[in-house]
């Protein structure tokens, strides 16, 4: 759901009007249940009134400033990550035309050392003109704090081999310009994503539910921040308990490649798996509760109280 409703809801709340925010998907589902498909403002208002009469809605509560900031950061991080992945694909497509064997030199094509060396020597001819000794010196200067000189010699030798074995392609100046420009964009995206992640973690740690969500096995910092920003405050769920199952497999076993129709949906090698992680949401604070199943595997749950 977008945030276009915020100016209207803020104005109404400032004038002491109770506001109920209805998800557009819920309103659309209610409208589709009618046979006649009429699209007018009067009919839309009637459908919303009918939906409010049939369903149980509670007035929306204003969100905390920290949650609003966290939601803005997590959604911006997702958009930047999507753009970064698309940029990486475009960069690889251009690099295949300019320096096809260069991706095999470093283990990570998008690390800082790899991008800086490619920025200085974007073509095989530039690498051959520089020579192996110069490459060793520059690689070692970029990684002197974390890598040895022997590692720099190995990477320089790989660069020379990749340049010698790369096919001779008709490379124009525009290809070199594109490679350098896209490398600069990649570096900026990496720095921007790192700054957003740092800010996300700083904002999320000020919310007391963050540590409880972070304690769930398999949930990292970014996932916990995203869950918290989208779900909101835990007390929105009310007094009735809500069970949210999270299936995980024991580390000693692995999921089989093929399963037979007779096996259950949660089985491995014909043995039924139990629920290994359950989130039990009741109030605000999280407390772990452990239990053991018949198979001897632990089932964890988090209780908000």
UniProtKB/TrEMBL annotation:
Which molecular function GO terms apply here?
Answer: DNA binding; transposase activity
Q: A GO biological process this protein is involved in?
A: DNA transposition
The Transposase IS110-like N-terminal domain covers 3-100
Q: Which UniProt keywords apply?
A: Coiled coil
Which residues are in coiled coils? 179-206
Q: Does the keyword Transferase apply?
A: no
Is Coiled coil set as a keyword in this record? yes
Question: Would you tell me the protein name for this molecule?
Answer: Transposase
Species for this entry: Melghirimyces profundicolus
- Specify the taxonomic lineage: Bacteria, Bacillati, Bacillota, Bacilli, Bacillales
